[in-house]
């Protein structure tokens, strides 16, 4: 929370028990279509309970927003007759389902924290070991949340090999970053493609020797290009951080301060030389890549392309709270939210923008809006969620505070990062792309890991659409936060916070016809926010990356200026642009 200036079942079951575990995982699906009811019904793949045991999922539309929130639930075991007069009660069964389905099924909600990991592990592991791909994926996600990447990779791979897209995307991320497994960009790319339903890279078995050499050279050049771009970004960030530490000469010379400034200036000069070398290297590699692609085309090998996916409609939920019932009043969130909402509608042609300000942004109303979107969005649509207000952290978990939030430690009135991630995950909210922008204290806790997403591939001149179409076809679940695991400023420039001012200005001044990626926005405003906040005495650095466990498959959220016309907004109703 910010101050006045801040925003602020056993694992090894044998014989009859093992059989009952399997039976509890798969036999309860009779009479159920499977999947998630848009009205908040149960997830019926793998381990979850038969919905006919409780209530028809279609009745979820009559339930309150709070009752339709997706949660992890432990359901009681079921008694089976497995012989003449022989009965067995299965262990408790895990499910990811709505609150009301959990209640009517006689279950209890499971909350995640590090101390609770053993219980969570025991609950999901029985079904995971019995081969249920969804249980395997959930178990992998719990391991990942506590940085046990080796076990996460094991369970993701088991589910991925059963063609479960969410596990394939999660495994792709670990392979890309080298977390718990050896870093393997090629394998990562293939798992991402499988998760997105894209065709695998064409086999090179019939390639000539020259084509094989050119393919290898192209792959190597792309790998070196990614490394050079990552190095350049790191050097520029370090230079920016060091520059703000240089102090102007004092009235009375201070030898220690002078020596410190000289050391900082020397390091900055070194970084500038390295950055220039990387920039030259990047230019040469881009030329090399373009030439190699030309040679491949000369051998009859066309650049791989992907059929364009429908752009879909654009929706936004924008929340701004400064007048809290039980918290300190903030200065800028309402102004920030209004400005963002206006830009999304006027410049980027969002088909629907829901704006919740102050007393409209209660916990119930926020969930009501999210559940409504979950029922409305289709698999080609795009959703932006923007939150500006108080944030809080308890243990290892971050929270958004609605206007009616109680003071700590009464977190039952708050909205956790985990709840947001679960309820915007691919299998529960069928939008292709979701971007969550949070300007609140401790908002960076949503990242789960400290890693930003992989750099977007470079596109050579004359092929500006290829990567955009590929990224648009893939699922994305990304976050952009105003800071990390710390308080952030509620002031900055004019009537906006330091983060909102940079975010709004960049969107407002973007004047190119090409779609604008969230990657680009982050790259452009990160240094500006850090510099401005440092000058105000409280440095904060924005974070950006995939929301782990939410189904991100290395896709990209794009803002599209060409949608700003009335004609394009009208086309939104037809589901195409």
TrEMBL record:
Segments of this protein annotated with the region Disordered: 243-263
Gene Ontology terms describing biological process: proteolysis
GO molecular function, one term: cysteine-type endopeptidase activity
SMART domains recorded: SEL1
Record-annotated Peptidase C14 caspase domain positions: 315-542
Source organism, top-level taxon: Bacteria
Protein's name according to its UniProt entry: Peptidase C14 caspase domain-containing protein
């Amino acid at each position: 929370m910010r101050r006045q200036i801040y925003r602020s079942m056993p694992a090894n079951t044998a014989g009859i028990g093992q059989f009952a575990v399997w039976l509890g995982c798969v036999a309860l699906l009779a009479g159920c279509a499977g999947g998630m009811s848009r009205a908040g019904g149960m997830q019926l793949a793998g381990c979850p309970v038969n919905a006919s045991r409780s209530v028809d999922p279609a009745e979820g539309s009559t339930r309150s927003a709070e009752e339709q929130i997706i949660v992890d639930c432990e359901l009681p075991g079921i008694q089976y007759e497995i012989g003449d007069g022989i009965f067995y009660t299965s262990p408790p069964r895990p499910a990811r389902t709505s609150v009301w389905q959990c209640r009517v099924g006689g279950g209890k909600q499971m909350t995640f924290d590090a101390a609770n990991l053993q219980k969570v592990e025991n609950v999901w592991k029985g079904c995971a070991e019995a081969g249920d791909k969804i249980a395997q994926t959930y178990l992998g996600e719990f391991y990942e949340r506590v940085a046990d990447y080796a076990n996460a990779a094991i369970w993701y791979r088991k589910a991925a090999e059963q063609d479960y897209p969410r596990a394939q995307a999660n495994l792709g991320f670990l392979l890309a970053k080298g977390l718990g497994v050896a870093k393997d960009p090629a394998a990562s790319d293939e798992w991402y493609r499988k998760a997105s339903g894209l065709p695998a890279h064409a086999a090179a078995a019939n390639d000539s020797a020259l084509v094989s050499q050119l393919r290898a050279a192209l792959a190597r050049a792309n790998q070196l290009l990614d490394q050079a771009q990552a190095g350049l970004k790191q050097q520029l960030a370090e230079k920016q951080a060091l520059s703000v530490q240089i102090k102007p000469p004092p009235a009375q010379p201070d030898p220690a301060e002078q020596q410190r400034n000289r050391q900082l200036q020397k390091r900055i000069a070194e970084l500038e030389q390295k950055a220039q070398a990387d920039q030259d290297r990047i230019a040469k590699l881009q030329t090399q890549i373009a030439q190699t692609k030309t040679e491949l085309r000369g051998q009859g090998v066309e650049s791989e392309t992907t059929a364009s996916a429908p752009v879909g409609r654009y929706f936004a939920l924008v929340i701004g709270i400064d007048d809290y019932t039980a918290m300190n009043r903030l200065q800028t969130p309402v102004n920030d939210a209004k400005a963002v909402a206006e830009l999304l509608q006027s410049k980027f042609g969002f088909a629907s923008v829901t704006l919740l300000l102050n007393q409209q942004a209660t916990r119930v109303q926020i969930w009501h809006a999210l559940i409504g979107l979950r029922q409305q969005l289709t698999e080609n649509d795009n959703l932006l969620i923007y939150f500006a207000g108080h944030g809080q952290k308890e243990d290892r978990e971050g929270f958004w505070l609605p206007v009616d939030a109680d003071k700590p430690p009464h977190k039952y009135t708050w909205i956790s990062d985990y709840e947001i991630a679960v309820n915007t995950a691919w299998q529960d909210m069928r939008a292709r792309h979701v971007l969550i922008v949070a300007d609140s204290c401790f908002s960076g806790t949503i990242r789960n890991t400290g890693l930003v997403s992989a750099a977007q591939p470079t596109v050579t001149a004359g092929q500006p659409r290829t990567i955009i179409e590929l990224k648009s076809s893939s699922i994305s679940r990304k976050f952009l936060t105003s800071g990390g695991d710390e308080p952030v400023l509620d002031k900055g420039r004019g009537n906006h916070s330091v983060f909102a001012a940079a975010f709004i200005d960049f969107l407002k001044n973007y004047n190119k016809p090409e779609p604008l990626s969230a990657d680009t926005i982050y790259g452009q405003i990160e240094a500006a926010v850090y510099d401005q906040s440092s000058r105000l005495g409280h440095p904060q650095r924005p974070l950006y990356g995939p929301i782990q466990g939410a189904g991100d498959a290395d896709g990209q959220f794009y803002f599209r200026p060409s949608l700003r016309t009335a004609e394009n907004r009208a086309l939104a109703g037809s589901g195409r642009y």
